[in-house]
Predict the 3D structure of the following.
Amino acid sequence: MSNPLDNRALDTYRRLLGYVRPYWKLFSLAMLGMIVYALTQPAFAALMKPLLDGSFVRRDPETIKVIPLLIVGLFILRGAAAFFAEFFINWVGRQVIKTLRGEVFHKFLTLPAAYYDRNSSGVLVSKLTYNIEQVADATTRAITTLVQDSLTVIGLVVWMFWINWILSM
């Protein structure tokens, strides 16, 4: 049986994601950055075996030259992906905040005078600034965690199974 609180939270989250729709291209770039960032973690793990075997065990000069360059390249790719993911998701988050603040402000303009008598100006300013900021920040953080961290775990588990599925079980 599903929890009604979960359904409400999911509906609220879907509604918040609806504000992202006008910025779907930049949001997609942020998602791509998160995916690339997440896939670099298993790539680092994949480079460790040839690095250790080729440089310490076999002392292969070609491996000693190539693997560190690949690691540096992977670090550069990871840094660029992290930058683009963070930049674009924050930009989209700022646009969502701007839209939400505009909607709340327009709602404030239509409220009856009695509402303003019951609520202090501090509460109203807090709703307009702090609360909206918190909602947008939680949304972008949740997306980052969901996409980036989930894909990192999946990638590392797949790599473990690729190396030795019996041991991974």
Notes: The two ends are 31 Å apart (CA to CA).
